[in-house]
Give the backbone structure.
Amino acid sequence: MNILDAAEKVLLERGVPMPIEKIAEIVIRSGLWTSRGKTPKVSVGSRIYVDMKRNGPRSRFVKTRAGIIDIRGGDSLFGDGAFAGGGVTLEGRNAVRSFSESVRALPDADFESMVRRILDGAGIREVERIRRSKPDEINFEGYITILDALSIRIRVLAARWKSGPVTMGAIDRIRRDLVPGDRGIVFSISGFTHEAALAAESDGEPPIILFSAEDMMKMV
């Protein structure tokens, strides 16, 4: 196992952000990666930092604050930050990654059909595609009825970006289309940036619900 795979395994099994020194310590102590060098812990840390600098938003790692590293949720729906408490197994992450890759490879019509099935299963009716803003995203509008009396308009963005996670700009874009009483939903195969996740929950703004590749995989 190489250094990056070993560090990823440690973070996935713990399920929380960790100091890079602690990650290196566990990697070495558990024998996930070995080295004949005199400073193996330094090698682990430097390799992670090089990967983040070289790959930017496509790195599997993200620095949450000084010296603290976490798994980037680029191919699950956790966005930049920790996986939920209790951890996510390596097998589970691989399953989500495989699902994400298969969705990205779908013809446009099949991707649209999949999203429509998910929305129908959630009770959202009268779904219409309203526009395609980018090659890898579709915007929908539909309605959900509560207690056979209250009809709420739902605006939906379904994204399968190859360039990286959904950003705060996309959240702002869908929110501009909302009027009081509306709700927003964003599906993303590529995850969400930390700023996007915060923007979706802004106080005083129409709520926007975020669904990751993992959520979509369960729905499908």
